[in-house]
What does this fold into?
Amino acid sequence: MRAIPKQAVAIVSEFEGCVLVAYPDPATGGDPWTVGYGHTGPEVKPGMKITAARAKALLTEDLKVAAAKLRTVVKPDIIAALDDCQYAALLSFVFNLGAGRTWSIWKVLNAGRFDEVPAQLARFVNAGGKKMKGLVRRRAAEAALWHEGDAEEADLPSSVTRSSPTPPTPTDTKPLTKSKSFNAQGIAALNGSLSVGTATLREQVEPYSHLSDVLGKIMVVLIVLTAISSVVGLYLTWMKKQQANR
It folds into this structure.
């Protein structure tokens, strides 16, 4: 069985809080009674008191129960492909809500569509037919924790990638003029190239400044050619990056 990551303990501790004296369910005023970090069970009775150490131990046990529930709805190879942050986000989710077998979030996960998981998490924010701010905050925290794992995304197992259709090559490549990378980096490089090119040309033709009319025309032609050359070079570099990203 996979170990419970520290990130799961941290996020559940934050949202559940720790109460060392048993308290009743706010909706019923009685059962289920809760103690520690959201722990419930037949052994939790009115007046029950526990230590902080016991509360931590119960939290670990409850997270193991959540992990067992998760294994009933998510394939083992998918769970193995999750990093600790992603796994922790799902444990917090299941700890809070359980693991309904028909929920679409499991279908998305089992299909290996990890990028869709945060949006699926965000769907579970209602209680009693109303959107709850506490659930919105918790789902947002779980989504943020999931994205922390995106920085070093685990490779999907071959059993997943073999069964996933290869997407077609994109045909609607973003126009060069609308590319953020081109606008931010390409224009800066173009400006730099033009500045350097212009300065160089001026130095080279300075000795012949008495031929101002002719040189002026030559300068214009050479600057235009330099600009065209720079744009073509940037365009080719951009196209290579697009090909590499496909």
